[in-house]
Specification:
Blueprint (H helix, E strand, L loop, with lengths): L1 E5 L3 E5 L5 E2 L7 E6 L8 E9 L7 E6 L3 E7 L4 E10 L11 E4 L7 E7 L2 E7 L5 E7 L6 E7 L5 E7 L8 E6 L1
Antiparallel strand pairs: 1-4, 2-15, 3-10, 4-7, 5-6, 5-8, 8-9, 10-11, 11-14, 12-13, 12-15
Length: 178
């Protein structure tokens, strides 16, 4: 089985002098499971079993005759254990597949510190390691445009430096997950 995690994070920051802000949009956690098809010719579907204890499956999803499934509504910080069975048209079910496990990692919501010195804007902060972010700017909180991008390094550190908009008394910035 191959496992993958999806999550979405967004944050906004407003230029004052130096200002720290963290806002987030949580999305239900999910995992994508994929498996090889059963070699049996009479298989009409698959059941995905999962639970929070190894070998104890408290949930079952009938995914029909497909070899992948996205399981949603999973809790952050919990390790889930998964197994798949095949079934035929009589409802007879195979033994469990090999078990796979996956821990839903906590989402790191970006935090940003904004500083302005010598005509340059610098955004520094923390985000999800390896995540790409667009930096958007707006003179009025209505019309936004991408002014740059940054990627959180392996430690989750963000850094973006740009010549700031100096012709306006106020200019707004926001960080957007790409």
């Amino acid at each position: 089985m191959r496992l993958g995690n999806k999550n979405l994070v967004a944050a906004a920051a407003l230029l004052g002098s130096a200002f720290l802000l963290c806002a987030s949009i949580p999305v239900p956690q999910s995992v994508l499971l994929e498996w090889s098809p059963s070699p049996s010719s009479d298989v009409v579907g698959y059941h995905v079993y999962y639970g929070a204890a190894s070998g104890t499956y408290t949930n079952m999803v009938d995914v029909g005759n497909t070899t992948n499934a996205t399981i949603t509504g999973l809790a952050i910080g919990v390790t889930y254990y998964f197994a798949v069975t095949a079934y035929n048209s009589y409802g007879l079910e195979s033994a469990y597949s090999n078990q796979a496990s996956y821990t839903i990692a906590p989402v790191v919501y970006p935090t940003v510190q904004i500083s302005f010195a010598l005509g340059q804007l610098t955004l520094t902060g923390r985000g999800q390691a390896g995540t790409n972010y667009n930096i958007l700017g707006s003179p009025d909180l209505t019309n936004w445009s991408v002014i740059g991008s940054t990627t959180a390094d392996t430690n989750g550190t963000l850094r973006f430096t740009n010549a700031a908009e100096t012709s306006l008394a106020k200019y707004f910035y926001r960080l957007q997950h790409r």
